[in-house]
Amino acid sequence: MNVNSWRKLCVIALLTPAFHCLATPTPPDTLKITIEESEKIFLQNNLSILAAKYNIDANQALVKQAKLWDNPVLSTDQNIYDKQGGFFKHDQANGQVYVQVMQLIKTAGKRNKLAQLAQDNATISTAQFDDLVRTLRFALISDLYEIEHQLKIKRVYNAEINELQTLVGGMDEQLKAGNISVKDNIRIKALLFSLQNELINVAAQLIPLQSEVKLLLRNTDSSFILPVFNYYLPDLIKKEIPSKEELIQIAESNRPDAKIAHSQLDYANHNFIYQKALAKPDINIGTEYDQHSSYAPDYVGLAISFPLNFLNRNQGNIASAQFTIKQQQALYDGQVSQIENDINSAIAKVKFYQNIDNIQQLDFSRQYETVFQNMLKSYQQRQVSLLEFIDFADAYKDTKLKLLEQHTSLIKAMLELNYQAGKDVITLNK
User: Fold this and answer.
1) Molecular function (GO) terms listed (predicted)?
2) Which of the residues 59, 245, 273, 307 could staple to 122 if both were Cys, CB 3.0 to 4.6 A apart?
3) How does pLDDT run across 386-399, given as a tens digit for each residue?
């Protein structure tokens, strides 16, 4: 071993206790939370959801407004001064008073058709609210499962680090007794240092996850949010999922984006009907009183007015509404195709990871723990070399992490299938 390599190993040995302090900080206050509890807090506290609820209320208020009749219009005219009567002289011989009351009568059911458009907007806003909740809920649950995944990774590192720390303590005594070489002692400490450094990187992954979960839950304290799950992995591996046809039908009925596309198509059709109704003239009808300016004193008459729609029959808006229907139909068909593609992809992922993440791998993982303990004892008893032990320790860590990654990928695939279906078709927690 050259001088530079020897110096590096010595530095590693000196820094190992410092990294141990960084990798195992004093745990902060912990808030344990289940999926059900997190969803309840999320729905109550999330500001984005609260704002979306107000949008629904605003659109429902517009439905009520669209159903209201137009106010009658009062018009009046009277003299202030004239030479014959002076100021405010009103009698049978002097002055003039004119009063008219008019009411707009909308024809062709325009009021009901406008109310239907407002109701369509309210339905769209409700579906948009559901879509927001669906998206944020998926982000929340995914983050909680990812926190659990990172904590499992930490446990793998901590378990191996704890064993190596015990081994290092014993080797230090053996080094003092002259039973092992300095090189072997430093090599084990270098392995320990490497694991502790990787553990720090894992712990860093939890910081943004905790931040996002707290933002979704509107949690402002310093506690560490610890998700509590109750699932049994072998059951998930063997879990049967509904057929593709059934899942597509569920998605088309439950996914908010499908409801939005359908409601927008309904709006386009109802708008076409409304634009055709606007081509029909509305009628203003009312009564009027004229004191002196008419052919007879104290004249009372019936007033009716309506536009003659010879030039503008709303042709442009009607044509535009027709093209909008075609546009929305194409968008709706595209949304249906997107749903089918999403379901097919989600099913393929679940089945793929179910086939990979089989029961034999779980048995292998448990057996590997025993083999690691045996390997550790064999090294302590000088039955295997240092190089063999280090190679096995690296392989042990990598294998455990890959198994955890496969387990998490299966859970994420099932979460995605629930998300794509628009409802929980697979129950992960008992």
Assistant:
1) efflux transmembrane transporter activity
2) 59
3) 778 788 788 888 88
